[in-house]
Structure of Sigma-70-like protein:
Amino acid sequence: GTPATPNPGRAPRNRRDIGTTDTELLTRHTNGESYREIAATLPIGPTAVRARILNART
């Protein structure tokens, strides 16, 4: 399986560096921003935003 703490040296493939952390996305969503609103400020779509937020909840 995947290690609990991924190596910061290299990002997993198919996961773009968007200049913000999943935790930060989760915070923004908790503060009332929709997936669409958050995605509008990033180079990824709402679906990817949602996936990252769900990932950050663990």
Observations:
- The chain has a mean pLDDT of 82.
- Residues 22-56 form one domain.
